[in-house]
């Protein structure tokens, strides 16, 4: 498992700049080791893909979970890379479900998490940070436009974990994506009975117990009012492998100085408070290990 950080040019006015973005985004999504590239036919090659025209996609990349639960509880994510309504601005679309037909079409219950994307309407700053990480329960990738929110997005695909020891659970898959409009779109797939995707708009509605007694270190964390999102299902308690806190208490400057460690889920885990995501009242901290 590892964390990933890269800087690419945010104005995609050449094939090379477009390719650099696709390659960095994929590397970030694969950094934790939770996901791998699926063998679907018809995928683009990130190193040679040709930048498409405006309002078009160059093609897709298909990813799948490769953890111990993948054989019985598979996860597939399709990312489509393109150019938006502005000639130099990228757009990205993702779709999630539990299977693939092997040639780019996702399969599974209820159509899965429907295609959702970003399509910036203006040029950005020209500098795009790409981050990625996760752990044994999930993977995440973020594009963050330095100086502009018009190309910011976060994609996080994970399993629920047992809050007592961090063990991934097979019964729930969570997928969510935030965009520059700070709208969190998410869904969970319950696979322990009535199978179906349950919408979780505007984040995760759940009990948020105070973690004031947890030991933390590093970063710019000035206070320890941190919370973990809990979900109750069929008499069991699960948690999302992420932490929520107040933006004012989790200031972000850069990935190296803002990360912190927290004694939780049976051990010490590193987190990164993410900039530019979610409502102003909360800041999501993603595993950075």
Keywords:
mainly beta; 289 residues; globular
Descriptive report:
The protein has 289 residues and is mainly beta. It has a domain of 200 residues. It is 7% helix and 43% strand. The protein is globular, with a radius of gyration of 18 Å. The termini are close together.
Secondary structure layout plus pairing:
Elements: E1 4-9, H1 15-30, E2 35-37, E3 56-65, E4 76-83, E5 90-97, E6 99-100, E7 106-107, E8 113-118, E9 127-135, E10 138-145, E11 153-161, E12 168-178, E13 184-190, E14 196-199, E15 216-217, E16 226-227, E17 230-233, E18 236-239, E19 243-245, H2 255-258, E20 260-264, E21 267-273, E22 283-287
Antiparallel strand pairs: 1-9, 2-3, 3-4, 4-5, 5-8, 6-7, 9-10, 10-11, 11-12, 12-13, 13-14, 15-20, 16-19, 17-18, 19-22, 20-21, 21-22
Brief synopsis:
It contains two helices and 22 strands. It is mainly beta and 289 residues long.
Q: Strands of the biggest beta sheet: in what spatial order?
A: 1-9-10-11-12-13-14
Order of helices and strands: EHEEEEEEEEEEEEEEEEEEHEEE
Which structural class is indicated by helix and strand composition? Answer: mainly beta
**Rg to the nearest angstrom?**
18 Å
**Mean of the pLDDT scores?**
81
* Separate helix tally: 2
Strand content: 35-45%
State the end-to-end distance.
6 Å
Helix content class: under 10%
Largest sheet: 7 strands, antiparallel
Shape: globular
Say how many strands there are. Answer: 22
| Spans where pLDDT lies below 50 across 5 or more residues | 181-185, 201-208
């Amino acid at each position: 498992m590892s964390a990933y950080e890269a800087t690419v040019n945010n104005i995609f006015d050449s094939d090379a700049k477009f390719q650099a973005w696709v390659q960095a985004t994929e590397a970030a999504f694969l950094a934790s080791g939770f996901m791998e590239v699926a063998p679907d036919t018809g995928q683009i090659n990130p190193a040679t893909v040709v930048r498409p025209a405006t309002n078009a996609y160059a093609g897709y990349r298909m990813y799948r979970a490769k953890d111990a639960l993948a054989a019985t509880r598979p996860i597939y994510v399709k990312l489509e890379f393109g150019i938006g309504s502005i000639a130099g601005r990228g757009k990205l679309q993702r779709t999630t479900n539990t299977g693939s037909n092997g040639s780019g079409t996702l399969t599974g219950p209820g159509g899965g998490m429907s295609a959702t994307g970003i399509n910036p309407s203006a040029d950005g700053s020209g500098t795009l940070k790409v981050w990625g990480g996760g752990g044994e329960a999930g993977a995440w990738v973020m594009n963050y436009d330095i100086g502009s929110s018009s190309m910011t997005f976060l994609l996080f695909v994970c399993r629920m974990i047992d809050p007592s020891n961090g063990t991934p659970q097979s019964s729930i898959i969570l997928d969510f994506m935030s965009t520059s409009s700070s709208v969190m779109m998410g869904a969970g797939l319950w696979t322990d009975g009535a199978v179906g995707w349950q919408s979780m708009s505007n984040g995760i509605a759940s009990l948020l117990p105070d973690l004031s007694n947890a030991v933390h270190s590093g970063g710019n964390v000035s206070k320890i009012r941190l919370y973990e999102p809990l979900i109750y299902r069929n008499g069991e308690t699960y948690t999302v492998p992420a932490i929520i806190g107040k933006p004012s208490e989790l200031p972000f400057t850069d990935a190296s100085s803002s990360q912190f460690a927290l004694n939780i889920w049976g051990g010490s885990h590193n987190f990164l408070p993410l900039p530019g995501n979610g409502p102003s009242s909360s800041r999501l901290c993603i595993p950075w290990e």
